[in-house]
Amino acid sequence: MEATIDKTSLLQELASPYAVSPEAIAFYRQNGYVKLKQVLSPAVLAYYGDIITELVFRLNTLDKPMHERTTYERAFLQIMNLWQEDEEAREFVFSKRLAQLAADLMGVEGVRLYHDQALYKEPSGGITPWHADQFYWPLASPHTVTVWIPLQATPMEMGPLAFAEGSQHVEIGRDLEISDESETVLSGLLQQQNFPLNDTPFELGEVSYHAGWTFHRAGPNVSDSPRKVMTMIYMDKNQVIMPPRNRYQVADHARWLANVPVGSQPQDDINPVLFSY
């Protein structure tokens, strides 16, 4: 007999505050990322993980064999803005707990959603090359952060996210898109400048937050199961749109910001405020 799901308790968990310590906030601001344990319960991850997984496999259009894909395509299946596709996915993406954590870590009054994306690294999926996310975003302020939520425990063989500690403070390599070149060039630059690497497994319920300019990568998935991850990108609710500096930012300006005029703030309908003090 199947256990009944107490949906009310799941929604309460997603809405209730998570007390982040002053030490964790200080660590994030110094190092550009932080990993936090037991942020979400196994029950929440199982329930919403099933919904997200169904959406990923229904909406995915990348069906080329692995050996025919680019490095980027081998890294993961990438499905974006699930909140617009499904009401229950929206419940997860709009979690006040996760959004408040983003606001607290950045030290801002509130946060908007930039967009969400599921990142599923298939068995035999390749590396995710070194990169910084904000290369892609036409956003003026560095007050941006991504929460990376594994939907299962993520041992080393699945390719957990790895971070170059403190790399958000340097301007090297900020003009590199995610590619074989970014992996090679940034690997060398980050080693030369002695940035410590945090490359450790994730327990079930553990999540990470990383700043938009923090360099990060992930290893290949050499396990026989997909590495299922959900992410949300948050920005300061008072973020301002800047002139796009590359073709990717032009595309992002159109897709995620509805071509709102440069110099203005994002609009509530497509970039809703998810938490505010």
UniProtKB/TrEMBL annotation:
MF terms (GO), sorted A to Z: 2-oxoglutarate-dependent dioxygenase activity; iron ion binding
Transmembrane among keywords: no
Pfam families with a match to the protein in the record: PhyH (PF05721)
InterPro entries: Phytyl_CoA_dOase-like
Protein name: Phytanoyl-CoA dioxygenase
Alphabetical keyword list: Dioxygenase, Oxidoreductase
TM region positions: none
